[in-house]
Amino acid sequence: MKVTENKIYNPEAECMDRAALRELQDRRLVETVNRVYNNVPLYRERMQAAGVKPEDIKGVDDLHLLPFTNKTDLRDEFPFGLLAAPKSEIVRIQGSSGTTGKPIVAGYTRNDVDVWTEMVARSLTAAGAGKDDIIQVTYGYGLFTGGLGAHQGASQVGAMVIPMSSGNTQRQLMMMHDLGATMLCCTPSYAIYLGESLKELGYDPKEFRLKSGCFGAEPWTEEMRKKLEGLFDINAYNIYGLTEIGGPGVAFECCAKNGMHINEDHVIAEIVDPETGEPLPYGESGELVFTTITKTGMPMIRYRTHDICVLDDSPCPCGRTHLRMGRITGRTDDMLIIRGVNVFPGQIESVLLRIPGVAPHYQLIVDRVNSTDRLEVQVELTDEMFSDTVADVEKLQHTITEQIKSVVGIAAKVKLVPPKAIPRSEGKSKRIIDNRDLTK
Ligand code: ADP
Ligand code: ZN
Description:
The structure is a single chain. By secondary structure, this protein is an alpha/beta fold. The chain folds into 2 domains: 1-332, Rossmann fold (3-Layer(aba) Sandwich), CATH 3.40.50; 336-434, 2-Layer Sandwich (GMP Synthetase, Chain A, domain 3), CATH 3.30.300.30. It has helices at residues 11-14, 18-39, 41-49, 71-76, 110-126, 145-156, 169-179, 188-200, 222-232, 345-353, 383-386, 390-408; strands at residues 90-97, 103-109, 134-137, 160-163, 183-186, 212-216, 235-242, 247-253, 260-262, 267-272, 286-292, 303-309, 311-312, 324-325, 330-331, 336-338, 341-343, 358-369, 372-381, 413-417, 432-434. It is globular and about 70 Å long. It starts with 10 loop residues before the first helix and ends in a 6-residue tail after the last strand.
């Protein structure tokens, strides 16, 4: 494997003495709490209900006094209710899927875009990127933060960017080959698909100049890392983020490949017990909670990610002092990530409820075929529809497929099944059958 140099984009911030970092976080947290208290009704009301005044928060030690926020808050306050800055200061909207049909959106000020860009620049630099690199961005461009995030970060480090966006495997490989891309940014599952297609299309891996990849937006494993590193002869690095907090780059892997450094000068991370919300010590597995401390457009206080992982404060050989988060090992809700897209059963349900002829009984079956995720939605027909003509049923199937595509953003195979075909359960119905093996 080609060796990547241990380069640090912003050593002053990334290798800051922890005591100084704590002081910086204290100061920025106080500023942020005042900002949201004064500008966002939801925060003011929640803090008042909890009996917390802005002056009670003097620093990170007081963080636990503040109420949590959740994805549902973004949905309820859609689209601009959580903005802490005037709309005229917002220069970008990014979005992600919400728990039902409606997306959630986040507004970024110029400052927020700059912060995010630096976070990605740090991530790419840690993966070896510099101005001599040619970076192929294969994350989707659009509301999804992956494409534009990687693009901005790659431009920031001065690399040559190939803004491919997602899809079109043959063209991806042709450009990667002909332009001599040295770094690839995409989801790990698509990277594996590209790697496997490479040989099938008759390319010799030796003709590629790729030396590293920044892969994220969905959970992956050490097994997948080995596979990716072998397929392309590269170093594969993990990158993590979420739209609400600032897109990809919230945390990223360094050359030690042992956990992702969290950009702690911009966000404060906590691990809490998913049931009780009580903070847990470093090293214990629990739900990751973020508080942004430099965002001005839509700062988030104690935002519950629903991602499960551990935090590690042991020193890292790379020299960075920021905490590391382990791989995401699960979710505390029923969100699925399919081909990098967040999918909630509630979104599918909201589509089905609007369509006459189908019963509100459905099951989502997820498989991984040739490294690509496949989603099948099994839906029960109503008794009346079941006795209708084949043409009518086919039309219905087409309608459901189209609506899922437009609401959820991914193509799913829709299978209509006879009334009562989907097993009923006594308690919580089993909506998801996930046959993917995420341990490999
Ligand atoms: P992104 O563009 O980073 O996927 P979204 O807001 O659409 O942002 O989705 C965020 C969610 O994606 C996270 O809460 C997490 O569940 C998942 N995710 C992002 N990056 C990773 C990663 N490297 N490993 C595991 N899960 C990830
Ligand atoms: Zn490190």
